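Two quick folds needed for the group meeting slides. Do the first one here.
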Amino acid sequence: MTTIQDLITYTRQRANIEDNQFCTDDELITYINRSLAELDDCLITRYEDYKITTYLATLTNGDYIIPLPPDFLKVRAIDYSPSVPPNGNGWYTINQYQLPERNRYNNSIQNIASPWGKVTLSSRVMGDSIYMAPQDEAGGEYQIWYTPKYQWLPLATDALPYYMDTQAWSEFAVVSSCVKIMNKMVLDPSGFMAEKQEQKDRVISAAKNRDSSGPKRVANVRFAEDYGPFGQNGF
């Protein structure tokens, strides 16, 4: 288990400032956290499932806005159920609507006439909320799959997240912090900058094939097969 103190020690060794307090430990904690946040970006912008998590939200009749959690970064997927599973009817996938479509299905008569009820239900992330449409059909239970922001590690005893503490990927944060140290000391950071790029390329390459159990399959996004009278969602 790698801690922030381990990275502080290693960063001082790499930058050759073991006995030099020109950069304090508090400063190094800041440098290391900003570098770890950059490493986090490298992983989650290319491979979205590295730290995916979920939360549940309930909308009653008339509500159509789901607040986002404080640590929200990106939505990965949204599921819907007319009532709370497992007593409900199971989860159904909700797709994103385009902004010009936001009022397309806000028609109660049209929704009542629809034989499948929730066929038109869709979502969109805007600001600090998720907006559901059509508004008068949004009532029910939602499961939000999302990628959280990087969680700052303020204490020297804090341990790195599991997805960073593998294959020496934290080396990226060390050399990135060394670049910041060299810049503060008005020294040439080019050697560390080159190594930082090498480490970034290595992490991106190594992190890609996380599941090697078999080839990926093409997602079926044909609307009729998902929501037709004989579709898998049972409408």
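Then this one, please, same format:
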Amino acid sequence: MSHLAETAAAVGDAESAAVLYRLLVPWKALNTADVPEGMRGSTSRYLGLLAVTMRRLDEAKQHFDDALAMNERMGARPWHAHTQADYARMLIARAARGDAERARALLDQAAATYRDVGMDAYAATASALAREAAVSTP
């Protein structure tokens, strides 16, 4: 279901996101796994993506915070960086007071982790988004 959650979020399908959210929320304190990759990080990351897709940003924030904590505890560095980048995108879109600064910090941290683990394309994307967020700040 993690792949479905990412797909629903990527295409902005709020109806599918709502169905997947209901199915995943009982598992929010656990990790997600699939056959080809093994562990895919905290289930709360996927709940955050789905909540953003449904425009439930307060819930998304909580899910991303939970995912960051779990991924950090486990040492799941790539999934921690993915969560930071997803969280930052939500903050940029929300554009509340302090969101741009927090988003840039999350993206800088994500880019550093991506570089450390050899995920250079993701690092470049996170760095570019951080620069864009800096330019768009009023």
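Slide caption for protein two: The beta strands are 31-34, 38-42.
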